[in-house]
Structure formats: C-alpha cells, structure tokens
Amino acid sequence: MITKKIDKWGNSQGIRIPKDMLSKIGINNPVGQSVQVSIENDRIVIQKPDNRSALQKRFENFDVEEYFKKSGSREVDWGEPVGREVF
User: How confident is the model at residue 79 (pLDDT cuts 50, 70, 90)?
Assistant: First the structure.
C-alpha cells in the first residue's frame, strides 16, 4: 500500500492515484473516466462503474446450460401459429 498526503485543489481536497494502481481494477485510460466512490466501514472505496445493461444485470446468475439440462431440450415450443407466419 502507498501512503499519500491529501492536497488542496481549489475548494476541494484530493489525492493522486498512480496509474498502475488504477489499471489493477480495470481503469486503463483514467483521464475523464467516471468512478464510483463510496464509504464502507470507515474506508473510501473507489470502483470502476458497472456499465452493464439492465438486461445483463438481470441475467447475471442465469446458467443456460443448467436450464437446458432441466428442460431436457434446446428446442422451444412457441405454440401454434396465430397470424400469417410462413414456415
């Protein structure tokens, strides 16, 4: 761990984080990139934001192989045609 001093930047305070530390959490082009900052158990936590879509988040724990094992088939029966579908 690297110990840093807090500096005054305008009306705010800040620290400089080395680029190699940021790259360890997947931030490779840090200039202008957003981060999530939170407080957890008296610690300041800096994280890369979760940029997944709502659909990706909803299905994050879905195991498609397990689903097909339980259903017994990869085919899906959508029922009888209801319009002018051509098969």
Answer: confident
Tokens of residue 20, six digits: 């190699």
CA nearest 1: which of 30, 16, 23, 21?
Answer: 21
Q: What's the predicted TM-score (pTM) here? A: 0.52
pLDDT tens column, 35-51: 899 999 999 998 888 88
- The answer to the question of residue 82 being in a domain is no
Query: Does residue 86 sit within a domain?
Result: no
Chain position carrying tokens 């080395």? 18
User: Which structural domain, as residue segments, surrounds residue 33?
Assistant: 7-71
